[in-house]
Design brief:
alpha/beta, Ribosomal RNA small subunit methyltransferase B, 4 domains, 8-stranded mixed sheet, 47% helix, RNA-binding, S-adenosyl-L-methionine, RNA methyltransferase activity, 511 residues
Length: 511
């Protein structure tokens, strides 16, 4: 094609001075800025740029924000208020992505899946500033348009400007009413306003009902998943106590609600600055994770109590607490992990334990251990690989990656690991089956499936054991004490207990 022949469509989109206009502006649909062209923001601030780059890495590389964001902030020299802003913008956008997509869909003239992924992430960041943060509307729009110009170009920036102005004209409560009214059914309405996939929303609702709670709590559970969790520390018994934990630092702590080993770090404090955390005498660990570990150690045994096993030990938080408890009784721990890089994390987590407390960090398939060492252990922890639906507030991107198809492979693996653990424990010994998921298929159904083929296993009252290990005076609401497993197993909830949604079943191998 000759380059000196004018393009008809291009001429239609030129202004009186012959300058090229965007397609939206040529149709009279673009929002106009009050800034003069010379004053328009060409770039945005480093905090917003960092949040955008993390979102793109999460989407394009299946990265986890909690692993990508901290080193990126350090690399770019962001700290204090800038780092806090980038963190809230990044995590808040990931958590509330489903809600914002439902709102953006009403403001964009095409399906969202037809937008460039970079543009869609810019729009989500802008929506969170407008609807989920205390950012003035003019700043949220202008800074996000600047981000769009810098990262995706001037043309898309015009569309971002128009869409965000439309988003900002309606308050969040009105948007939620519209999204709710447009949904075809109650579950979809909950999923969109609560920013979870429909299948996860349905599964959580069923899990609440199956564990003796009111299914009407679903909205509260979804909202708890969308709230940033507090940083909780664990003091490993025999290695450090509460008085030593913050000694010599400016960190402020308060005691946990449930576990005697738990301490909550005040907002703005960095756990890495605490010497006890740096050297492994303490660590960052959810209070629910601490409770289920303490429960296994506290379950009464018949016979010796000398050799403990963590069957799926990576990354090592529960193993370190178990090893400290074992050391206090003269017992030893074997920590098994199938992935070599996770086994190295376990070794690092156990570095503060005294000599002799850890028999070995073993790299191998936990499904084989019951055959290789039958009846060799007194206590066994099966912290089974799962969907992680109980920790969505910590890893918000997981909710958008998981699919119902994941359940088939995971539940099969969970059942194999539990069978191996029951073979590895001696008669009279105890197995704790733990998941960071409340999904009934990964909890109750896995245990029931395994027990149907065994007549040498007794289900214990895990609720009674957990209540025994609580901080004195604590009253843990575990739902209705129904019959069967619903009255024996423990299921924790973010909206009730402020913990991850940890599940615990305790089993004793018959003598």
């Amino acid at each position: 094609m000759s380059t000196d022949r004018p393009d008809r469509h291009g001429d239609d989109r030129r202004d009186a001075r012959g300058r090229q206009r965007g397609a939206a502006r040529s149709r009279g649909q673009a929002g106009r800025t009050t800034q003069a062209p010379a004053d328009r923001r060409r770039r945005t601030d480093p905090a917003r740029t960092a949040a955008f780059d993390v979102l793109r890495d999460v989407d394009a590389s299946d990265a986890y924000a909690n692993l990508v964001l901290p080193p990126l902030l350090r690399e770019r020299g962001l700290s204090g208020r800038d780092a806090a802003f980038a963190t809230e913008l990044c995590y808040g956008t990931l958590r509330l992505r489903g809600r914002y997509d439902a709102i953006l869909a009403a403001c964009v003239d095409r399906p969202l899946d037809r937008l460039d992924p970079d543009v869609l992430d810019v729009l989500r960041l802008g929506a969170h500033q407008l609807l989920g943060m205390r950012v003035p509307a003019h700043a949220a729009v202008s800074e996000t348009v600047g981000l769009a110009r810098d990262r995706v170009g001037a043309g898309p920036a015009q569309m971002v400007n128009a869409v965000l102005r439309k988003v900002g004209r309606t308050p969040l409560p009105e948007w939620l009413d519209r999204v709710r009214d447009d949904a075809p059914d109650e579950i979809t309405a909950l999923a969109r306003t609560g920013s979870h996939p429909v299948w996860i929303t349905r599964a959580l609702r069923e899990a609440l009902h199956g564990n003796g709670r009111d299914a009407g709590e679903t909205a509260d559970l979804l909202e708890a998943d969308n709230t940033a969790p507090r940083v909780t520390l664990v003091t490993r018994p025999g290695l450090v106590d509460a008085d030593e934990l913050a000694a010599g630092t400016d960190a402020r702590l308060q005691a946990g609600r449930w576990a005697p080993t738990a301490h909550v770090l005040a907002p703005g404090s960095d756990p890495a600055t605490l010497p006890a955390v740096a050297d492994g005498r303490a660590g960052v660990q959810d209070e629910g994770s601490q409770l289920v570990t303490l429960a296994l150690a506290a379950t009464p045994l018949d016979g010796p109590d000398a050799r403990w096993l963590d069957l799926c030990a990576g990354p090592g938080g529960k193993a370190a607490l178990l090893a400290a408890l074992a050391a206090g009784r003269g017992a030893t721990l074997v920590a098994n992990e199938i992935a070599p890089h996770r086994a190295r994390l376990v070794e690092r987590g156990l570095r503060a334990l005294p000599a002799g407390a850890v028999e070995a960090v073993r790299t191998g398939d936990g499904r084989d251990l019951g055959t290789e060492e039958p009846g060799a252990y007194d206590r066994v922890l099966v912290d089974a690989p799962c969907t992680g639906l109980g920790a969505l507030r910590r890893r918000p991107e997981s909710r958008w990656r998981r699919t119902p198809a994941d359940l088939g492979a995971l539940t099969g693996l969970q059942a194999e690991l539990l069978r191996s653990a029951l073979d590895a424990v001696r008669p009279g010994g105890v197995v704790a089956y733990v998941t960071c998921s409340p999904h009934l298929a990964e909890t109750r159904l896995v245990v029931d499936t395994v027990l149907r083929r065994r007549d040498d296993v007794e289900r214990l009252d895990a609720r009674a054991v957990v209540r025994d290990v609580l901080v004195p005076g604590a009253d843990l609401d575990l739902g209705a004490d129904g019959g069967g497993a619903a009255g024996l197993d423990v299921q924790l909830w973010p909206h009730v207990h402020g913990t991850d949604a940890m599940h615990l079943t305790l089993l004793r191998r018959a003598g």
